Amino acid sequence: MAKEKSRFSNNINIKNRKARYEYEFIDTYIAGMALKGTEIKSIREGKVNLMDGYCYFSKGELFVKGIHITPYAQGSFYNHETNRDRKLLLKKKELDKIEIKINEKGLTLIPSRLFINDRGLAKLEVALAKGKKLHDKRNTIKEKDTKRELEKIKF
């Protein structure tokens, strides 16, 4: 019998590529997510969009908003809401440090990567970031182009 390929995967690594272009990352943190119902099944299928996501504090707790997790196809009426706010799970010391930095320096906290760790838990990598100006974005594009040209010359 041929081995059947499963639609669920533990090798999930979903990146927010636009974030590196729009923001300059200062520090990154790995947080757990409080998920409900069929959300983990949709994540294992890779049906997640991080583009519009951002993090905010509410009563000393950290939440992520704007992450779109597509409803699970076989979920029936047990399915989850697609764009609900999800609580991020970090240690209290890390939360306090992040909140102080966000309030003082005008930094923001954005989701940069969603992955499943070796224990099978969904983790969200959030980055403490500062928005880039237009000239910084142009410099980033120029650096990528020169790096690409150097790679072509080597081969």
Features:
30% helix; Small Protein B, Chain: A; 9 strands; two-stranded antiparallel ribbon; 7-stranded antiparallel β-sheet; 155 residues; alpha+beta
Provide a descriptive summary of the structure in words:
With 155 residues, the chain is of the alpha+beta class. It has a single domain (13-154), classed as Small Protein B, Chain: A (Beta Barrel), CATH 2.40.280.10. The protein contains four helices and nine strands. The mean pLDDT is 85.
Describe the protein's topology:
Elements: E1 13-15, H1 17-22, E2 23-33, H2 39-44, E3 48-49, E4 54-58, E5 61-65, E6 68-69, E7 86-89, H3 92-105, E8 108-116, E9 122-131, H4 134-154
Antiparallel strand pairs: 1-8, 2-7, 2-9, 3-6, 4-5, 5-7, 8-9
In short:
The protein has 155 residues and is of the alpha+beta class.
Largest sheet: 7 strands, antiparallel
What is the N-to-C order of secondary-structure elements (H for helix, E for strand)?
EHEHEEEEEHEEH
Helix content: 25-40%
Structural class, from helix and strand content? alpha+beta
Strand order of the largest sheet: 1-8-9-2-7-5-4
Total separate domains: 1
- Terminal Cα separation, in Å? 44 Å
Uncertain segments are: none
Helix segment tally: 4
Q: Provide the CATH topology.
A: Small Protein B, Chain: A
Please tell me what the overall shape is.
globular
